[in-house]
Amino acid sequence: MASASIARSETGDPLLLTPGPLTTSKSVKEVMVHDWGSRDAAFIAINKAVLEGLPKIIHGEAEFVTVPMQGSGTFAVEAMLTTFVPRSGKVLVLVNGAYGLRAKKILDVAGRANIVHETAEDTPPDLVEIERLLSADPAITHVFAVHCETTSGIRNPVEAVAALTARLGRRLLIDAMSAFGALELDAREVAFDAVAASSNKCIQGVPGLGFVLARKTALAETKGNATTLVLDLHDQHQAISTTGQYRFTPPIHVIVAFHEALKEFWAEGGVAGRGERYADNARILIDGMRALGFETLLPEARQAPIIVTFHMPKDPAFAFQRFYDALKDRGYVIYPGKLTVADSFRIGCIGDLYAKDMKAFVGVVAEVLKDMGVGLKSAA
Ligand SMILES: *Cc1c(COP(=O)(O)O)cnc(C)c1O
């Protein structure tokens, strides 16, 4: 194959069509070629700007604070659950994929009572059932929901879940990891106590920092809830808000890159601008793949423009590993499926990827299918 047909990022790397870590801009990576001490005034100022800027993304400047947590996104989710849910609390966990299940596992390990409302991976939670469960069990203090369940790419109805949870006098905790910065979540209209996200998804930073946007009044009530030292968001907030410093070594380079990524996010128009580019990417991907004969797991109405799950073709000439390797050879990294309901694979629409990249990708998929002798369109 001609080398001209191999896709590369600005820094010469394969394009990651994955849900994060994802392809970041060259400028985000470039700001990391320095050293800072963790008590260095320049770093402390950058960190402060990052933390103070994040609540704007949910229109929560007045009522929310950012509490960062070193580590991947799951560290932030575990910190949120084990700080906000008191030891005597009980959580209704809404599950329709791996990240809902992970939250349940975190609660089990931490010894927090919980019950699960589970729906299939292509199905949103049932509001009538949530109302029944909450009404039947006054011990339930919190509801946990995943905004975009990255397992399938489904957009869960967090607005409706929030309204119901508030009406029944319970508190909502949200894992918005893969949606944060791309799907609107407006704290002025949607009632929740905390939302967890990370540096390496739709804000397009590098991995290493999770964070929780916490309602100040709710965070103030969490003293002593934590069952680990490291993941105690109340303690973390106390330290950072009084000294400007982390309790334990911060991922400095990650935070500096995140600061640059946030500048680029706002320059693109914030949630509206970024969400629109991703929606465009998803549109080109879905239309192009459908034209080749692929089928999506989700109907349009449930599909978030983050990551798209495609059914594995039935044509015996289609071998996923060959497909994956051939795409990788041409500069595109895709994602295996994670579903239990269907044999599938996933393609991400997020990161430093544009319409031209998605168009070129669909063209390469057509070539690879031809090389493999797969005739989806006629065989379908
Ligand atoms: C990525 C992601 C997480 C966190 O995963 P890590 O591997 O710990 O970064 C949590 N929830 C959802 C919905 C995600 O997409």
Bound ligands, named by name, code or SMILES: pyridoxal-5'-phosphate
Please describe the biggest sheet, giving its number of strands, its sense, and whether it closes into a barrel: 7 strands, mixed
Shape: globular
Structural class by sheet pairing and helices: alpha/beta
How many domains make up the 3D coordinates? Answer: 2
How far the N terminus sits from the C terminus, by CA atoms, comes to: 28 Å
Query: How much helicity do the residues have?
Result: 25-40%
> What is the assigned CATH homologous superfamily of the largest domain?
Type I PLP-dependent aspartate aminotransferase-like (Major domain)
Number of strands: 14
Mean pLDDT: 96
CATH topology label of the largest domain? Aspartate Aminotransferase, domain 2
Q: Encode the helix/strand succession as letters.
A: EHHEHEHEHEEEHEEEHHHHEHEEEHH
CATH top level class name of the largest domain: Alpha Beta
Q: Identify the CATH architecture of the largest domain.
A: 3-Layer(aba) Sandwich
Low-confidence stretches: none
Strand content: 15-25%
Rg result: 21 Å
Specify the number of helices. 13
Binding site for substrate: 346
Keywords: Aminotransferase, Pyridoxal phosphate, Pyruvate, Transferase
Domain Aminotransferase class V: 111-312
Cofactor: pyridoxal 5'-phosphate
